[in-house]
Design goal:
By secondary structure, the protein is of the alpha/beta class. It folds into two domains: 347 residues, Alkaline Phosphatase, subunit A; 103 residues, Arylsulfatase, C-terminal domain. The protein is built from eleven helices and 22 strands. Strands 8-7-6-5-9-1-10-11-2-12 form a ten-stranded mixed beta sheet. The longest helix is centred in the first third of the chain and has 25 residues. The chain is globular, with a radius of gyration of 25 Å. The termini are far apart. InterPro entries: Alkaline_phosphatase_core_sf (IPR017850), Sulfatase (IPR050738), Sulfatase_N (IPR000917). Keywords: Hydrolase. Belongs to the sulfatase family.
């Protein structure tokens, strides 16, 4: 073969290689960052406190847009109807009694979330996410329990509830000569990681909190717009004491509570605006929910259950069922309404699936609800739920739309007169609730006990209760669970 033919073959071969390489480049998918996640958690927001769930006398247009652009869940339950326990469940994907967290932790508590547990922040941080929390922690105020020890790179907020301060219900300091359960509480600190930025001493100070958390979240988004991030934004309000900043005072027809809700809606709007302006909205999952139902003995400073029974601190639906909205443009079909049984404990395994993060080795209780977020409403990822309260009391069990109330003594607001303007009304803490069966499809207010009509359903749900007791235990029947883990208790 002469040199000209060899040269021609080389040119042809080179051209083919170049075309193949160019084809690979053309067809190679551009690298897409994993989705950012913004998880907004309200405090004591009831099922009826958003416009898209029927709120009256104020509007929440920015929050309602999350529903219009994504999925609105109508059968969504918190892990337990009280602050610390609920937050422990949300962050770890576990029933809080599995990991030794109960009730609402007080200042200087020796108990806190065990750092051996895996939080959503831990999962995402391990995959390269920048993680931050701005708001109320309430899982232990000792340094050993801080958010920075639980997967969060940055933290600004309160260590516990905004009513845990030495201030009376009227917003004035408690006189030294007056006996009061809050008298010996320390001053309420606003923390930045391990440092105290300032102390929250007055209702005017409280009015700044929503704005501070919002500003911090916006700044974090701007600083991390080129890499994946997770923001956990647990607002301090509308937990009492409530206070709105000057620009929102007197703006609603529902007084201070409505003003506070309008400011929270503004906060959501500012965060969404920042995501849009940063070009991140289409690749960000925004979740909006609450830690439990409203503290309804506070009257006009409390929210609404939307007609559900009881409220905060109670395992009837008014205490445990809350709003949940998820926007994920291009993935979650706009305007979807999901009536399937779901819970805050389902966030961790779902986020793990979405972000290809490794689940913890230990047992969790959440299930992957990604099919529901994608609009596949024929799926039933969760069929059973356990309603625990107190240290470890199994008060009810549920299978899809059937709910069995187990005999127990607990909180009730029924027949009790609330008070207004920041003062608590009376509440019964020793009401006896007998065995009862409710069909939540027909009776979400749990008014009509139908156990006599459906004895076979009662028997089926009692078997589920026995499964819960074997796994997690039950103080009401003196049962010890096989699979519970300890919280972290300081000596």
């Amino acid at each position: 073969m002469n040199s000209k033919k060899i040269a021609l073959l080389c040119v042809v071969a080179g051209t083919i290689v170049l075309l193949l390489f160019s084809s690979l480049i053309v067809h190679e998918k551009p690298k897409v960052n994993p989705p950012n996640i913004v998880l907004i958690l309200m405090d004591d927001l009831g099922y009826g406190d958003l416009g898209c769930y029927g709120a009256l006398q104020y509007q929440t247009p920015n929050i309602d847009k999350l529903a219009a652009n994504g999925v609105r869940f109508t059968n969504f339950l918190v892990a337990q109807p009280v602050c610390s326990a609920s937050r422990a469940g949300l962050l770890t994907g576990c029933y809080p009694n599995r990991i030794g967290i109960a009730g609402a932790l007080y200042p200087n508590s020796k108990l806190g979330l065990n750092p051996a547990e895996t939080t959503i922040a831990d999962l995402l941080k391990a995959t390269g996410y920048a993680t931050a929390m701005f708001g109320k922690w309430h899982l232990g105020d000792k340094p050993e329990f801080s958010p920075n020890k639980q997967g969060f790179n940055e933290y600004v907020g309160l260590p516990y509830s905004n009513d845990m301060w030495p201030v009376d219900y009227d917003g004035l300091p408690i006189p030294k000569n007056i006996e009061h359960r809050k008298k010996n509480y320390p001053a309420l600190p606003l923390l930045s990681n391990s440092d105290t930025l300032e102390y929250i001493r007055t209702l005017d100070d409280q009015s700044k909190l929503t704005g501070i958390y919002t500003e911090k979240a916006i700044n974090f988004i701007k600083r991390h717009q080129n890499s994946p991030f997770f923001i956990y934004l647990p607002h301090s309000m509308p937990h009492v004491p409530i206070s709105a900043s000057a620009r929102f005072k007197g703006k609603s027809k529902q007084g201070t509570f409505g003003d506070v809700m309008m400011e929270i809606d503004w906060s959501v709007g500012e965060i969404m605006k920042t995501l849009r302006e940063s070009g991140l909205e289409n690749n960000t999952i925004v979740i909006f929910t609450s830690d439990n139902g409203p503290w309804i003995n506070y009257g006009n400073h409390a929210g609404s259950t939307g007609g559900l029974r009881e409220g905060k601190g109670n395992t009837f639906e008014g205490g445990q069922r809350v709003p949940c909205l998820i926007q994920w443009k291009g993935i979650a079909p706009a305007g979807t309404i999901c009536n399937k049984l779901t819970s805050t404990i389902d966030f961790l395994p779902t986020i793990s699936k979405i972000c290809d993060a490794k689940l913890p080795d230990h047992k969790i209780d959440g299930v992957d609800i990604l099919p529901l977020i994608k609009g596949n409403l024929e799926r039933h990822p969760r069929k059973v739920f356990y309603y625990y309260y107190g240290k470890n009391n199994l008060e009810a069990v549920r299978q899809e739309d059937w709910k069995l109330i187990l005999p127990h003594q607990g909180r009730s607001y029924y027949g009790q007169l609330p008070k207004n303007d920041g003062f608590p009304g009376t509440v019964s803490e020793s009401t006896l609730f007998p065995l009862a069966l409710y069909d939540l499809r027909r009776d979400p207010a749990e008014n009509y006990d139908v156990k006599e009509l459906y004895p076979e359903i009662v028997s089926q749900l009692q078997k589920i209760a026995e499964e819960a007791r074997a796994d997690l235990g039950d103080d009401l029947t003196q049962r010890k669970g096989k699979n519970i883990r300890p919280s972290n208790v300081l000596k």
